[in-house]
Specification:
Structural class: mainly beta
CATH architecture: Trefoil
Number of helices: 2
Number of domains: 1
Helix content: under 10%
Strand order of the largest sheet: 11-8-7-4-3-12
Order of helices and strands: EEEEEEHEEEEHEE
Largest sheet: 6 strands, antiparallel
């Protein structure tokens, strides 16, 4: 998934999700997997529930921790049910082909690009600026890697 600017999301040295500083070259590829919290989600919502795994590290999932989004290994978690909740998100259609990712664990909170380039979850502010910062678009396949999903925030031109 990429923004109109073509800038993707990558991982910092501490595995926090941050906006890539260039076009797609340094973007991290994520595999959209089945919802880790599948058993705790209502049956009618399951088709919209996903988890994101780092395509280069099996069992490393995007999760929110203290509102920030980061990649952590599931096998290293001391509280697997909490990890599964923090690593599961609803896909919400926002506008045309843009989508938002809503936290399962904290309903009404969405992936959002902060002004400092970090991604975190935050309650919907019901403003155009929030919608833009919480919107993502699918760009296409990255055939140079095993998996093909690149996550990137929508940025207003």
């Amino acid at each position: 998934m990429l923004s109109k600017s073509g800038r993707g999301v990558t991982l910092s040295s501490s595995d926090q999700l941050i906006q890539s500083m260039d076009v797609t070259v340094n973007a991290t590829t994520f595999l959209v997997t089945g919802c880790l919290a599948w058993n705790t989600v209502a049956a009618d919502l399951r088709p919209r529930c996903v988890s994101l795994m780092d395509a280069n590290r099996a069992d490393w999932y995007v999760r929110h921790s203290s509102s920030y989004l980061r990649a952590d290994p599931q096998y290293d978690s001391q509280d697997v049910p909490l990890f599964q909740q923090e690593s599961s998100f609803f896909i919400v259609h926002t506008q045309s082909f843009y989508y938002a990712l809503e936290s399962i664990n904290v309903p009404g909170n969405y992936f959002r690009l902060r002004d400092d380039g970090y991604l975190w979850i935050e309650p919907d502010a019901y403003t155009t600026a929030f919608i833009d910062a919480a919107s993502f678009a699918i760009y296409g396949r990255d055939t140079s890697r095993k998996h093909s999903v690149i996550l990137s925030p929508f940025l207003s031109p």
